[in-house]
Design goal:
Blueprint (H helix, E strand, L loop, with lengths): L1 E8 L23 E8 L20 H18 L9 H8 L1
Antiparallel strand pairs: 1-2
Helix pairs in contact: 1-2
C-alpha cells in the first residue's frame, strides 16, 4: 500500500508542506489549507484447473459430448466476475 499527502493553501493553491499550521501562506497570507491524501492498493489472484474427461464405452459419443458441454457451461458461469455464491472448485470436482 502506498500513500501520498499534499497540503495546499485553500485560497491560492501554494504547497504548504513544511509550514506550521498557524503560519500564514507566503503567497496570500491566509491560514486555511486543504489536505489531499491518496491511498493506493493493488492485488492479484490466479487459479488453474486441469480436467480429464472419462466416459463409459456404452454411451454414445454425442451423449458424452452434451455432458461435457453442460459441465463447461457451468464452469464458465462459476468463473464469471458477477457469479454469486458459487464454489468453482466444488463445481469442478463435481464435473469430474
Amino acid at each position: 500500500m502506498s500513500q501520498t499527502t499534499r497540503i495546499t493553501c485553500t485560497q491560492c493553491g501554494l504547497n504548504r508542506i513544511g509550514l506550521a499550521e498557524e503560519q500564514p501562506c507566503p503567497g496570500c497570507s491566509t491560514t486555511a489549507r486543504n489536505i489531499h491524501v491518496t491511498v493506493t492498493e493493488s492485488m492479484a489472484a490466479t487459479d488453474s484447473l486441469d480436467a480429464t474427461l472419462q466416459y463409459p464405452q456404452h454411451r454414445a459419443w454425442w451423449e458424452q459430448w452434451q455432458t461435457a458441454e453442460t459441465y463447461l457451461h457451468r464452469l464458465r458461469e462459476a468463473y464469471q466476475p458477477d457469479a454469486i455464491g458459487g464454489d468453482a472448485r466444488r463445481l469442478a470436482n463435481e464435473c469430474l
